[in-house]
Amino acid sequence: MIDLRAREFIENPYPSLAQLRAEGRPVWHPELGMYLAATHQDASEVLRSKSLGRIYIARSPEADWQTFNWLHSESILESEPPKHTRLRSLISKAFNRSRIESLRTKIEEIVEELLNEISEGEENFDLISQYAEPLPVRIIAELLGFPRDEEHLLRPWSQAIVKMYEVGSTEEAKRAAQQAATEFSQYVHDLMLERKAKPGADLISELAQVEEAGEKLSTNELIATCVLLLNAGHEASVNGFGNGMVALFNDEGQYRLLFSSPEKYGDTAIEEFLRFDSPLQLFDRTAKEDVEIGGVLIKEGEKIASLLGAANRDEGVFENPDSMDITRTPNPHISFGGGIHFCIGAPLARLEMSIALPALIKRFPELKLSSGPKRRDSFTLRGYEKVEVAKQ
User: Fold this and answer.
1) Residues with catalytic function
2) Does the model's pTM come out above 0.90?
C-alpha cells in the first residue's frame, strides 16, 4: 500500500496514484483508516454525495487543543447542513463576487509592487517567497483589514495550523499548531472588537454586521471564518502557482507557448496548473449513513477520501493526462473541490493568478530555473518551499 510519507512518493505521487486509479474502485488504506477514491467519477462523487459529511473529530487532550478544535468545528469547512447552509449564506453576503472583483486594482498594484522589488534585487530570486507567497497573503490581509506591518505574522501561523492536515505529526509540530491557533484567534478577536466599535470597509467589519433572518455569525464563527480565509485562501494560490511554474519550466514546448503569448493562454494555463499538479491532493469525508461509492459499500461512520490529484490525471476524462497542455479546454479538474464544500475562495485565487502570471512573464520574458526546486515535505497540501529562478 502507498506510503504517503515516503519521500519518493511526495516528490512524484502520480505513478502510484495511477495504480490506485487502475483498481477502478475505492481502495482501503489501513494506515489512514479510510478508503481512497482515485478515479474522476468516484472522487467527484465523494465530494458531492449528501450521504457523506465533513465531520470534525476533536483532538485530545482538550486542554491542549481547545482553541484549535473550535477553530475547525466552527468553520464552514468542517460543518454540514443546516449549520453549513447558514454559515455559507452569511459569509457569501460579505465575501461575494462583487467584493472579489473590486480587489482587481489592488491586486494589480501589489503585483507591480512585488515585481518592482524583485527587479531591484539580485539576478536570482525565489519565486515562492518573493512572489507567489506574499501576493495572496497581502490580498487576504487587505481584505480583512490587517495592518500592513503585521502581515509577516500570518503565513507562519497558517503553515503551523495546516501541517496538522498531513499524515503523522511530530510533537514539535503539534505544539506549534496549538500555539498558532491560540495566537491567531486572539489576534482576530482583538481586531473584531476594534471593528465592532469602529467599523471600516474591511471584511471583518462586514462579517461582524452581516445578518440574515435574524441570524448572525457568533464570535467563534467569525474568527474561524477569518482564519480559514487566510489558510485556504492563499494555499491554493501559492501552491498552484508554484507547482504549475515548475512544471512549465520542465516542458520547453509549453514554456515557449505561454511565454510567447501570456495574455492569450494565461487563463487556460492557470486551469492547467491547477489540474496538472494539484495544490490540494486529499479531501476526506465521513459516511453519515451506509453509501455505495464506485461499487464499494462505505458503512456509516467510515471515512473515504477524494484524491483530487489522482482524479485530475484520469485518462478517461483527460487526453494525455500526464502531459501539461496550457491550451486544454474543457478542463473539468476538481482542484477546488465540489458540492457544498466547493472552495469559497476559488474566484479570488483565479483572479490573483490571472493577474500575477502574465505580469511575471511580461516583466521577465527570459525567466528560467537557476537551481533545483525544493519540494515541501507534505502530500495533502502539495507545493514547493523554494523555487529559485534567474531573470535572464
Assistant:
1) 232, 235, 237, 343, 352
2) yes
